UniProtKB/TrEMBL annotation:
Superkingdom assignment: Bacteria
UniProt keyword terms in alphabetical order: Membrane, Transmembrane, Transmembrane helix
Chain spans, region Disordered: 739-775
SUPFAM superfamilies with a match to the protein in the record: alpha/beta-Hydrolases
Organism: Streptomyces nigra
Official protein name in the record: Integral membrane protein
UniProt cross-references to InterPro entries, sorted A to Z: AB_hydrolase_fold
Stretches assigned to coiled coil: none
Residue stretches spanning the membrane: 131-151, 192-209, 254-275, 287-308, 329-346, 366-385, 397-419, 439-462, 508-532, 552-572
Amino acid sequence: MGRTDRHAAANSADTASLTAGSCAGDARVALELLVHGVGGTTPQQMLDDPRTQRITGDDTAAVFRRADDVDAEDRPDDYRGRPVPEAYVWCNLTSGNSARALWLLLLPFMVVNLAHWMRPAARDRTRTIRLYGLLVRLAGLSLTVLLVAAACEVALDLTAWQCAGTPDCAGRHSWLGFLSDGGWWSAPGRRLALAAVVPTALTGLLWYLSRRTWSAYESQQPLFQQPEPDETAGGALGRPGFWYGRRLVARLRAAHTAAGLLTVAAAVGSAAARFDRRPGGPALLDVLGRLLDAALVTGAAAVVWVVCRRGRSENRLDRELDAHLVRRLPLAALALLVLTLVYAGWDRPGWQSAGRLPGDATFGAIALMQGLTAVVLAVVAHLLHRTAPDPRAALRGLGGPAVVMLACALGGVMSGGVSQRVADWLDGTRASLPGPPVLLTWQASVIPPLLVLLLLLCALLARRAWLLRRAELAAVESDYAGEPHDSARTRRIASTRAMATLTDRAPLVVAVTAVATLLLGAGALAGALITGDTPGETAEGTYAVVHGAAQTAQAIGSWLIGFGFILFVTWGRRAYKDASARRTIGILWDVGTFWPRAAHPFAPPCYAERAVPDLTWRIATWTRAGEGRRLVLSGHSQGSVLAAAAAWQLTPADRRRVALLTYGSPLERLYGRWFPAHFGPDALTALHAEVDCWRNLHRPTDPIGGPVRLPGDAGPAVDREALKDPLAYGRTAAHPLPAPIHGHSDYQADPAFAEERQRLLGRLGPEVPGQRPES
């Protein structure tokens, strides 16, 4: 059945239903607000009309109507038997030109921010909840320090200190000649001061992107309303300030920017201070070095205090800014950096660069702090989960700590990979340079065993899917009983169903990866401590085979990191240019950028802070414009999550005039399991009670969407029985050509979609909600 035919049939069915379900002569107008899902689409495709017109919004996100429906409010009699369709198109918030693939480089920041929202549901544990948020923010701060420290390692240590200070290395790279020709810039401190431009520019770029993307995406004020005392409408998601985190993001941006600048100052100043503190060194410079060290410690303490002092404010729309803090903290850190550069550039006769910069312990301290933070966070998450156990919660409430561990591992892999590749490029196979810190080398060595473990896990999951496929063969034959048997067709349907279940195994993959990363990371840290300053070698008495295996793992891991880094950027760029690739990984990216920046200000921007206010304002202005106004909020995939979030932001009076139709929805399957505090059973049950009515469609072949699974009688009231996919097993009079297996797409092709939309539109009334539909 073609798209036009499907919509014609649906509109015809709507006409019959509304004529039977509405009073004769009733001129009420109904609106169907369509919200698309991952990958996006065009308004022409959503509205099934080549002539569409934007009625509100801009080039980034807008609401469209068919050209013939623009003045529908002035012609209510023409729409008595059918709704006025509108399409909210938000795909430009998450996709666009291929340059946005560079956002993938911020993946560790996005992942740690995601962990903030994975907090287990809890009751009467306010202090523990605050501790959970504090620990995640500290983990995010450590990632910023790690990234800037890696940039310092590349620019200051490997390039300016080691290579430029070694005649053989500097001679092979002509662009380093002015740093090693005995001129003014050849002094070690001045080389470091010049190289500090690179990590300083990186910090400035992160600050700029965070500020710019907030202005473009997240500065939209939500619909103003007074907070509900009982917060029955979805808990935190119904609070007025949930989608407006301006104050916290500004504070965190100032703190993380200052942390990056202080990291650069510490990397530059530590080498000069070590030289000045040698016996017989200049007393004045020694005193200046100690004063700068004290100032650095004070600045670091101020940064930690700012990060710990304040979390999110959601109970009200917080329009204030801590202006003095936001301006002065980064400026003070920048001033301290400038003073440090001047101090390091002072003329010091006899100072020569040898070995590595005195920053090896920095990476070890960061790794140790991140591991301890993840462990403590796991304890806190377990305590929260015990207060309100949710059997469907991913990893029994430990999803947040596991994701924090993965974020730290990503940061370590990216830092180690860049350092290893730059060291190999500068030195090649000559081994004339000390190279990067030992810990980064050991971190590279854990990549091969981790990949082997993941390959074994993938093999296990593949076997499980194969066994499930065998079981699904009988289920497919039962679902299409009486149809002519076609073994190839049956296997194809069964395979699609089996593959769709792999989404539910994501907690196992995350748990295994997180635990393995923690253990292997601890082993890398121990190996770095044992081998000391000699990477690739082992302690005295270690067997030669172990020594050889360690060196082989380090070499393979180093190349895998570099290859993976290139593949990562290339794949991300393709995902933004190729629609099919975007649909493959789009759900993971859209889940990550759905949430506001609460733990890390340099994470990619939150599109929902623009999309949810857009939808809320549109729904509220429509329902309040007339006494008979009705609305069906129709969301597919990620659009159903935006629809639910917008419904929670409405006032109770507006919610009672809204019906919710979701299909291919990850509301429970992904969001409910991984974010139980915000999309758990209590929150979704409250949403069902507050809106006029809610129906959800799903298929067994859908790898993303699923049932809402509300407890008690609410479950069958919301979830329709799983839809058949494909609609027909073989050729029939209604389907003379083979019916496709739709999976996650094209739910409108199923007659059940038009049927459920009819029921919702027919039931909606201007004042009193109708009866809940029977299962």
